[in-house]
Amino acid sequence: MTADVSRGPSQDIETPLHLLRRFGIEVLVADQQSAVVEMSMPLAGMRNPFTGQPTIAPLGLLADAVSGMSNHFRHQGDEWTVTTELTVELSPEGCGMATAHGAPPVVAAGRPLGPRDAGSSLSVYTLSCDGVVIGGGTVRSYFLQPETVDLSEPAETLNRHEHTTLAELMAVEPMPATDDVRVLRQHADPFLNNAVGIVNGGIASAGLELAASAAVNTGDVPMRTASVRVNFLRPFPAGETSRYEATPLRVGRGTAVADAQAIGDDGRPALVARITAYR
After folding, report:
1. Which of 77, 194, 201, 193 is nearest to 144 (CA)?
2. How far apart are CA 68 and CA 124, in angstroms?
3. CA gap 196, 15 in Å, rounded
4. What 3-state class would DSSP assign to 21?
5. The Acyl-CoA thioesterase-like N-terminal HotDog domain covers which part of the protein (predicted)?
6. For the segment 78-132, what is each residue's pLDDT rounded down to a tens digit?
7. Within a domain: residue 73?
8. Coil, strand, or helix at residue 87?
9. Domain harbouring 66, CATH code
């Protein structure tokens, strides 16, 4: 998640700076020696394109950026990092506080959790809003040496306006429901790719949450996401058929669980996720 432009990782190959700018993410602390990282991102006004309800889906991007960079700061030599697991946990009031009208940006603070081993590193982060801790989670990263890395900044592909939606920021489009399955198209947008040419892991995590949340929000009283767990299986290329698919496992009176997967343009599942939501 970060890179050394001269010889390896000082710039983040997974969450490049232009992607942070698109989503209004500000880097507050990035201490390479301690591997402590803090960033902020506004959530107020962001809506799920399926339901029109406030959404915490972009926290997947914030978590990936913060804890991914913390992991990356522990690289050696020409190593880079890619995310292999990501979790988000929110307190009962966390969703409401973070997405309320006029709410201040959510601040994520990440740091290493235990020593790195030969191939991977784990970091933990907390989420706070208006000085109140509302959640946290972990990100596990794997160290590797990719053959091709493109650190150039692509031209902006989005024509921003006063009412730009989350769906526009993410280049996604909800498709008609089929039975219980919710499908969210992921259009190709080079601005959303990481430096190895695939959809950024935080963007994909957000897409999974949007689809899964829609799968359990079929009633009149909204279900608020409380936990998200994502596993990264393989690269997620975007194209004509790339999409997120989600199905509910159980929707009860007060809680619900749904599974989702990101399917690349090659037709293979690239990421899988499970969310839990509560009324």
Report:
1. 77
2. 10
3. 11
4. helix
5. 195-276
6. 888 899 999 999 999 999 999 999 999 999 999 999 999 989 999 999 999 999 9
7. yes
8. strand
9. 2.40.160.210
- For the record, the structure tokens of 38 come out as 């803090």
Dist. CA 207–CA 195, nearest whole Å:
19
Asked whether residue 193 is domain-assigned, the answer is yes
In a domain, 157, yes or no: no
What distance in Å separates the CA atoms of residue 68 and residue 87, rounded to the nearest whole number?
12
Amino acid present at 60:
G
- Alpha-carbon span 238 to 29, nearest angstrom: 32
Q: How far apart are CA 241 and CA 138, in angstroms?
A: 30
Which structure tokens are listed for 105? 């940006």
CB 174 within 8 A of CB 49: yes
CB atoms within 10 A of CB 199: 26
User: Which pTM value belongs to this model?
Assistant: 0.93
List phi, psi (to 5°) of 6: -65, -50
| pLDDT tens-place string over residues 186-226 | 999 999 998 778 899 999 999 999 999 999 998 888 999 99
Rounded Cα distance, 162 and 172, in Å: 19
Q: CA-to-CA distance for 16 and 11, rounded, in angstroms?
A: 7
- Which among 202, 188, 201, 170 has a CA at the least distance from the CA of 266? 188
CA dist., res. 210 & res. 51, Å (int) = 9
Decide: 108 and 38 in contact? Cβ < 8 Å. yes
Owning domain of residue 23: 17-145+163-278
Region of residue 35 (left: phi > 0; alpha: psi -120 to 50; beta: else): left
Assess contact for 180 and 186: CB atoms under 8 A. no
